[in-house]
Design goal:
Layout (H helix, E strand, L loop, with lengths): L15 H5 L11 H32 L3 H30 L29 H11 L8 H14 L6 H20 L9 E4 L6 E4 L2 H21 L6 H24 L10 H26 L5 H25 L10 H27 L7 H9 L20 H28 L1 H4 L2 H24 L55 E6 L8 E4 L5 E5 L4 H4 L7 E5 L2 E2 L5 H11 L2 E7 L7 H5 L18 H11 L3 E3 L5 H10 L7 E3 L1
Parallel strand pairs: 9-10
Antiparallel strand pairs: 1-2, 3-8, 4-5, 4-9, 6-7, 6-8
């Protein structure tokens, strides 16, 4: 079976077990994440209602000339604006609530930032599709009620996907199915409107294009990956690896939207927002790399501590860049303030960890006098050739006094960074609610302070002040964005009964189907030949034949033979159908208004292009060449005793192998 049809060309209805996979969830209504998403959905609806009422009041304010009425409407406008602002603040608080997305075992881990899903309302696609089928395909739209119901059920399921790989697969399947829907039905269908709410602000956006629907679902795939990454158990190595991959896939999906969709109406899909979100997801993936290194590779020794310091500095630099993107226009007015604060706090926190680990590298291990370790320690610091201050130039610490100086300098810098992180954390109301993050910051700060105080007490030398050097950010694991493999999720064209999508699509035009009845006697054939697959086409008509009298046209598509649908039929099937009809042949034909070019006529429409080929590239020349020998072989229905019969031996030499003559 291919594309929803059997091998004999008969379309089939998808099995019930296939539909059961599309039920989605409600969405995890019994969990904290599900309740949070349900509250977001209600807030989105409330914001939408307030916006509609405000728009109506604004129109009335502009239209009326009554001074008293203007004053009343102005009061109402201020009321609506106040309500909308309060609702948006409440929604912002929900977007800042990251704890419910974390794994219950990750109380000792720094929380990650997830993305909420875009919400959508029900879309009335039944009437527009039926009208388009009647107008464009000249068929009764009610015949395809089963397919329309399946598409509606599919769309209902993707509104509440499960927060796991099954949910991602469901959304991916729907995106792939939209490829077929977009090819079958034009965006010009009247009455078609897709409503989607912005992920962070709840502002509704409406578009008629199926591309908007596709982009919104792709955004939800990326958002779902962020939620999957956040809820991984990062106390285990397997959980950390899963989180890394999830954040990479989230970044790849959001980057895919950035590269393939232009002029999006919603702010969450604007290039500036997507660039920031991709950077944020890669930050969190790099943070997981640091956690994995500390869990598995951090051992007692100078080099392991130095590597940990460089890994932490790499995370710090990433978050510094992310904070700059978040603080730029227009992103800073769009995202929750807690996100900016979180990025700034993490920048300072991981910088503090870097200096803390570097101090441990020079003070604690037993191999501090190893020459390789000392050289590695020196290479982990940025050179300061432009600095003329001898105290700030980095040298290989040979003596215990020099090591103590450098260690204290790094600890001092670490304390400064911890204190700055605590200060920024205290400034944000939403971050103050995250007790686990505050506990982590205080614990790390107290450990560093204790170590620094002990060195202060043991310091009996009158040493000059040494400034800490900048640590070179470096990671032994280079991360890149991962674009999901959309092709791995196979789909069947729901509307396959309309015919091969390469021929029967929204862009191609053809005449309304007409029925032709041809009758012959035992002395003559029907007088026409056909060639091609899915569907076969009239290739030649003999002068003075029954076919010519029936007004067959060269290039006509044979869409039915004696009541049997042949839009998906192969050569042999059509021949068998004609033979079974005897002397009376009923054909249902349609005439393309534009003659298909040679490449399309020679390629098999039974094998559609990849659903994720957004650019609509044509089939490769290799596939065209491989099908040419089969599709150019015609079946001939000619008259007995005609001139063609006497000429056939000579003409057959010019025809390709596989030609079949029917009398």
């Amino acid at each position: 079976m291919m594309n929803g049809v059997t091998t004999n060309g008969t379309p089939v209805t998808p099995k019930s077990e296939d539909k059961s996979k599309r039920k989605g969830s409600d969405p995890l209504i019994s969990t904290a994440r599900g309740k949070l998403q349900s509250r977001r959905s209600k807030l989105n609806d409330q914001i939408n209602r307030e916006l509609r009422m405000r728009n109506g009041a604004e129109n009335l304010f502009r239209a009326t000339g009554n001074k008293r009425l203007k004053e009343l409407v102005a009061v109402e406008l201020s009321f609506f604006n106040s309500n909308i602002q309060l609702l948006k603040e409440e929604l912002s608080d929900l977007n800042s609530n990251v704890i419910v997305y974390q794994h219950e075992n990750c109380t000792s881990n720094v929380p990650m930032i997830p993305l909420g899903l875009k919400e959508t309302t029900e879309c009335d696609i039944e009437i527009p599709i039926k009208d388009f089928i009647l107008e464009h395909y000249s068929e009764d739209g009610s015949v395809y009620q089963t397919e329309i119901d399946e598409l509606l059920l599919f769309r209902k399921a993707i509104r509440t996907p499960q927060r796991n790989e099954e949910g991602v697969e469901l959304l991916t399947e729907y995106v792939n199915q939209l490829y077929y829907v977009e090819k079958r039905f034009s965006d010009k269908m009247t009455g078609l409107h897709f409503h989607w709410y912005d992920s962070l602000t709840g502002v509704p956006n409406t578009q008629k294009t199926i591309g908007f629907e596709k982009g919104s679902v792709l955004f939800n795939i990326g958002a779902l990956y962020t939620q999957i990454g956040c809820k991984q158990d990062r106390t285990k190595e397997s959980g950390i690896e899963s989180a890394i991959k999830s954040f990479q896939l989230a970044a790849g999906t959001l980057g895919y939207i950035h590269n393939h969709f232009t002029n999006p109406p919603s702010m969450d899909m604007q290039p500036e927002s997507l660039t920031m979100l991709v950077q944020l997801m890669m930050c969190q993936a790099q943070e997981c790399v640091f956690e994995r290194f500390v869990m598995k590779d951090l051992q007692d020794g100078m080099v392991p501590y130095i590597k940990a310091a460089q890994e932490a500095m790499m995370v710090s630099v990433y978050y510094e860049e992310t904070a700059l993107l978040m603080s730029s226009d227009p992103v800073k007015d769009y995202i929750p303030y807690s996100w900016i604060s979180m990025a700034q706090v993490k920048h300072e926190y991981f910088k503090a960890l870097a200096h803390h680990n570097m101090a441990c590298a020079i003070l604690d291990p037993n191999d501090v006098e190893d020459e390789y370790s000392l050289q590695y320690f020196l290479s982990a610091h940025l050179s300061t050739e432009e600095d003329t201050n001898e105290n700030s130039k980095m040298k290989i610490p040979r003596s215990p006094e020099e090591r103590l100086q450098i260690g204290k300098a790094h600890l001092k810098e670490s304390l400064n960074c911890y204190e700055e992180a605590l200060r920024l954390h205290d400034l944000c109301k939403q971050l103050r609610k995250i007790d686990t993050f505050l506990d982590i910051l205080k614990t790390s700060h107290d450990e560093c302070l204790k170590k620094f105080s002990e060195l202060e007490e043991e310091d009996n030398f009158n040493l000059d002040l040494v400034l800490s050097q900048t640590i070179v950010p470096r990671s032994e694991r280079t991360l890149e964005t991962l674009t999901p493999d959309f092709k791995s999720v196979k789909v069947k064209d729901i509307f396959a009964r309309l015919g091969p999508i390469a021929i029967f699509n929204a862009k191609n035009e053809w005449s309304a189907p007409r029925t032709v009845i041809l009758k012959k006697n035992h002395e003559q054939g029907f007088g026409f030949s056909v060639r091609g697959d899915c569907p076969v086409r009239i290739a030649e008509i003999e002068q003075g034949s029954v076919a010519e009298a029936g007004r067959l046209k060269v290039g006509d598509f044979v869409v039915a033979v004696c009541g049997r649908d042949t839009k998906w039929a192969k050569h042999e099937e059509v021949v068998n159908y004609v033979r079974q009809c005897g002397n009376s042949l009923e054909l249902r034909l349609t005439t393309p208004l534009e003659v298909p070019d040679s490449s399309r006529g020679s390629s098999s429409p039974c094998t559609p292009r990849s659903p994720m080929n957004m650019k609509g590239d044509s089939l490769s020349s290799h596939s065209i060449k491989s099908n040419r020998s089969r599709l150019s072989a015609p079946w001939i229905f000619m008259r007995k005793g005609s001139k063609e019969k006497s000429d056939r031996p000579e003409k057959s030499k010019e025809l390709e192998d596989g030609e079949i003559f029917l009398r």
